[in-house]
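Sequence dictates fold. Below is an illustrative record:

_____
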Amino acid sequence: MTQYQTGELAKQCDVSIRTIQYYDRKGLLTSTKTEQNGRRVFDEQSKQDLEIILILKRFGFSLKDIKKITIEENKLKSVRSMIEQRALNIEHEIQRNQMLLSEIKQFKNYIDKDSQAPLNKLLETNQYVTNKGNMNILTRSIIYRVLPVAIVQYTALVTSVITRKWWPSVIVLPFLIAFAVYFTRFIYKHLMYVCPNCQEVFKPNIKFWLFASHTPKTRKLKCPNCCETSHCMAIGQKI
């Protein structure tokens, strides 16, 4: 029967000698002392046990759980049951981490990498990230205003195509222009911006705001407090 000294077994299974010695002390492996030099040796069964331990460790099982599995009569059944529970735990952990990652990314958007703002500004940032009520209300309000206009515009366009006449589109054009002006002022009125450098909340000049490069959540604006030009995060005001 093949026998392994501690170092040989460690090399075979790609673990440290201390790991094997620790598992041996915990009773997870079985070793015997040689008569010649008193060194501990492990047999082939111990090698298999170690490989199984490493698999279960990879699944995230504790040594206490692993020891429990080894004394169960129906060992694979126990492994299956514990794997199912472990899978559920991992899924929940992934969901929590995804939510945490989303929150971290939002904080990152509010804080510039070279920000000189004091640490207590983090409390205000936390309010912007966690309190999305005003932005949600604003978003719904925008949808309620845009949807009827989109329906009118689409209807006029379809009518023009079907009748091969442009007058339906021409008739609604002044209305669409008036709505565009109203809608622009509505958005401007209900948005403020947070400077990622100093955390100042401000409302920019409408001319600069209108022509500033932007994304759905930010605009490149000059902060009136620190005079830095940055992609400032939008926050909603009460409607």
The longest strand covers residues 229-236. The mean pLDDT is 88. DSSP finds nine helices and seven strands in the chain. Residues 75-110 form the longest helix (36 residues).
